[in-house]
Amino acid sequence: MVKRIRDWVRPIIQVLILVIAVLVPHLINIAGIIKGIFGNNPLDFDNVKYYYAMKMGNGVIGIILMLFLLIKCIRKSNENYCLNKGNYYHEHLYLGYLFCAKILGYKECNIVRMPIYMQFKLLINDTFNKYSVGTEDDYNTVEDDSIEIRGVSDSYTSSVNLVLADTYPISRGMLPASTSNLSTIWIVRNDSKRMVRTYSKKFCNTVREIVSGLPNNVETIHLFSTLNPKHSLWIANNVFKLAGRCQVKALKVFPQSYKNGNWNFAEKGIIIYDER
Fold first, then answer.
1. How far is Cα 256 from Cα 264, in angstroms, rounded to an integer?
2. pTM of this prediction?
């Protein structure tokens, strides 16, 4: 919790400023001060706005002050600021990201060192206008990647496990027992054992070809992946965000957690979208 607060100290301070703005008129009784001033001065065109502020009361004055600070100061200062800076693992609630984007006015978000399920949720929902995946120097670009595909067949269950081994390997024992009865497709970068971020257009296109080639009876994909942020960005936008032009109606991304020396996937996936 302390790390999460440090990670988001800027938006937290901004929320505190807005709360204080609402409370200040009550604390110093601005409406009462205005009333005292009008007791000695006649009402005219120049001061009529203050007269009506007094009539509305401290509650309305606080809301007006809060909106002024939000629109003129906070949202304007956040337009060119990228959320999720610093060497932190950015693990926050989706409602928090939604609040930062739609209320506080953050336009850009860094998705490096963020849970993969949250990357997909932000990307597919267009929560922010722009996403940062690091610099070009953070990725080793390969043109002719070696990719292994397993589990492709002529018939599938209505829900399919899609395993994308990218930045590090995934073993069958890491998958939850709750999905063991489902068809499972493996797309494995043979370079994943090096555990480095690599951008491979061939890997991305392979994922798109496999998903688009699934038969019509497949409605749900359970995604198990170790994708790097750049691959997440491409796959979310070009494979799963197709505005209903894909037979896949539901996407669940299964998070990983470290327990007893192993990185296993959770028994339940996070629903990214469900149009069934």
1. 5
2. 0.87
